DNA sequence: ATTGACCTTAAAGCTGACTTTAAGGTTATA
DNA sequence: TATAACCTTAAAGTCAGCTTTAAGGTCAAT
């Protein structure tokens, strides 16, 4: 498989695939003309990268392709997943608070601000005080 | 008030205040020596910027200091807040799915992977398939 | 008079995950 | 044989929201 085909199959741009390789996350064989050659393992590896990203891992947090070949350490992996679970829970709370602030602000504006009127900046900063931020 | 004092009162670095001014979000008077002079309105304005950020608005989405002086348009503000509410709801779902993926992956690993063992890469990509990603 | 803590500007640097550009080599098709 | 559609590299550009740097001016206290 050439890089364009791998791009098609994985849904990831060729430039991105080269970028992952430059970060050490992916290895590639070369054919005689210098083109990169891939197989189904390469596709798996890309899927693993995207999956890990979807869990909140940055590219730098991922083990290099060389390291990954030796298999993964049980305790280390579970520890990191647990860490990400906690991060996700914290993020969830944070976004929830944001949504709450938006909801109360919308309610507040609908109650205190007649349609067609123009809200003076002062009133808005008062609302800001009420929103308790 | 000089910029350092405003920084103290607002909890925002002087460089950030200058940055906000360069983006047109903040205006400043100057004293005879060229130093920026602020008042309590400046503090309000900064609080409004941080509050708007906390609702998910980018700096570019915020009206410039000049525009804001004329007051705000009811329909426009409510429309944008509603937009952000929907964005926040979508984000909330997305993070929730991430947390779910993390939870099922942790469960899956605990069930299928004895402590002290080393997980072969192949097994991990199988789990990836099971995680249905 | 000098030190140190402030202030000024424009411009460059930082983060992460890429994309784009420039300059060129390869291959299949018309 | 020429043209298009691929591929290669290294290096620079993108985004947002800042921070840092460099080179200097101001001011209060010693």
Structure in a nutshell:
Chains A, B: GO terms for molecular function: DNA binding; DNA-binding transcription factor activity. Chain A is mostly helical.
Spell out the blueprint of helices and strands:
The structure is a homodimer of 133-residue chains.
Chain A: H1 3-10, H2 14-22, E1 29-30, E2 36-37, H3 40-54, H4 65-69, E3 72-73, H5 74-112, E4 118-119, H6 121-130
Antiparallel strand pairs in A: 1-2
Chain A binds a DNA duplex (30 and 30 nucleotides) through α2.
- Looking at the structure, the CATH topology of the largest domain in chain A is Multidrug-efflux Transporter Regulator, Chain: A, Domain 2
Mean pLDDT of chain A: 88
Count the E strands of chain A.
Answer: 4
Instruction: Name the CATH architecture of the largest domain in chain A.
Output: Orthogonal Bundle
- CATH first level of the largest domain in chain A: which class? Mainly Alpha
Low-confidence stretches of chain A: none
Oligomer: homodimer
The share of residues in helices of chain A is 55-70%
In which order are the strands of the major sheet of chain A placed? 1-2
Shape of chain A: elongated
Domain HTH merR-type (chains A, B): 1-68
InterPro entries (chains A, B): DNA-bd_dom_put_sf (IPR009061), MerR-type_HTH_dom (IPR000551), MerR_fam (IPR047057)
GO molecular function, one term (chains A, B): DNA-binding transcription factor activity
Protein name (chains A, B): HTH merR-type domain-containing protein
Key terms:
homodimer, 133 residues, mainly alpha, Multidrug-efflux Transporter Regulator, Chain: A, Domain 2, 2 domains, two-stranded antiparallel ribbon, 6 helices, 4 strands, DNA-binding
């Amino acid at each position: 498989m050439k890089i364009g085909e791998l791009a098609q199959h994985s849904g990831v741009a060729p430039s991105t695939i080269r970028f992952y390789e430059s970060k050490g996350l992916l290895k590639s064989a070369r054919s005689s003309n210098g083109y990169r050659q891939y197989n189904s393992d390469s596709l798996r590896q890309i899927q693993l990268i995207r999956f890990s990203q979807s869990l909140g891992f940055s590219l730098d947090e991922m083990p290099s392709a060389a390291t990954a070949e030796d298999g993964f350490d049980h305790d280390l992996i579970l520890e990191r997943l647990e860490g990400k679970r906690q991060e996700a829970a914290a993020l969830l709370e944070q976004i929830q608070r944001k949504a709450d602030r938006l909801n109360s602000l919308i309610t507040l504006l609908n109650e205190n601000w007649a349609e067609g009127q123009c809200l003076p900046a002062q009133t808005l900063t008062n609302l800001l005080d009420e929103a308790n931020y």
